[in-house]
Design goal:
Layout (H helix, E strand, L loop, with lengths): L2 H35 L6 H18 L3 H4 L4 H21 L2 H8 L2 H4 L10 H10 L2 H15 L2 H9 L1 H27 L8 H22 L19 H32 L1 H6 L22
Helix pairs in contact: 1-2, 1-5, 2-4, 4-10, 4-12, 8-10, 8-11, 9-10, 11-12
Length: about 300
């Protein structure tokens, strides 16, 4: 790692670590309070899932990986995959909104902001954004848009735009995984037939991009032609590794839940609960877990 990257990375790592530690502690406090009053509403896997997602976010933006992304496209790709593909479903499985409300300080958790009329349009926008069709389009636009050479170069040259890029990947990932995670977040809900199709369609732009990076035979991003990688690999080899990494991670990340959902739907219990004739535009809106009285 160059001296320039080291001087930039060190303070970012400390601040990011502090932020994620605070987030984890607030969530842990809320989970403990919820479990003490309603153990069934706070299973251990929710805690492990959310904390695992936080650790992966830290790995993407607060660990040495965040410094290597300017030197190796494969590390940059891994950072994006953690932000968009791996960490978001883990965070959502932890039901963070509800647990954070319990873990936040009393002055914050006692606020009833969502009930205020001014938030009604914002909630309506949120419902639209989390519809499967819209979420898929947004996530695809984020993925493809930032991999255009011009946009990629801007993010590499500007710290601010690099941060915006990371936030957009995380936001796009949360939107994408929101409809998929609902049956797992709320066990009473049945997985729907469109989820495997939704995940399959999402793999298509990822497969196209990963294949292009791996087999185009030329370096797409000039930034890495001048970067000094730490592992003595050429820019083209690094790009091919990035394409292969994207294909492997996305394939397994989307295939596993698709298979699980398909098995649940085809099982006798799944067929009993399944709602046929469901259009993507009519998918249930995000539900809130039943409120629990906290001591």
């Amino acid at each position: 790692m160059s001296a320039t990257h080291q001087s930039v990375f060190a303070p970012v790592s400390i601040s990011a670590t502090a932020v994620f530690l605070v987030v984890a502690l607030i969530y842990l406090r809320g989970w403990i309070r919820l479990r003490s009053s309603a153990a069934d509403a706070a299973p251990g896997w929710k805690l492990g899932s959310f904390l695992g997602g936080v650790v992966l976010l830290w790995a993407a933006v607060g660990s040495p990986l965040a410094g290597l992304d300017h030197q190796l496209l494969s590390m940059h790709m891994l950072q994006h995959l953690l932000l968009m593909t791996v960490a978001p479903p883990l965070l959502l499985l932890g039901d963070p909104g509800f647990v954070f409300q319990l873990g936040a300080p009393a002055a914050v958790s006692g606020m009833r902001v969502p009930q205020h009329p001014v938030w009604i349009p914002a909630r309506r926008i949120g419902e639209i954004l989390t519809r499967p069709r819209v979420a898929l389009l947004i996530a695809t636009a984020v993925l493809i848009g930032w991999h255009f050479p011009a946009a990629f170069q801007i993010a590499m040259e500007s710290e601010r735009w690099h941060a915006i890029e990371g936030v957009s990947f995380l936001g796009g990932g949360l939107l994408f995984w929101w409809p998929v995670m609902q049956p797992w977040r709320f066990p009473g809900r049945s997985p729907q037939w469109w989820i495997p199709l939704y995940l399959f369609l999402a793999t298509l732009p990822c497969d196209a991009l990963s294949a292009f990076l791996a087999f185009c035979g030329r370096v797409i991003y000039p930034h890495y032609l001048h970067a000094r990688g730490p592992f003595n690999i050429s820019a083209l080899q690094d790009q091919e590794a990035a394409g292969a990494l994207m294909w492997v991670v996305v394939t397994f990340a989307y295939l596993i839940p698709a298979v699980v959902v398909t098995v649940r739907i085809l099982s006798p219990a799944g067929q009993h609960l399944q709602q046929p004739q469901l259009d993507l535009s009519q998918v249930d809106r995000p539900l809130h877990p039943p409120s629990a009285e906290v001591a």
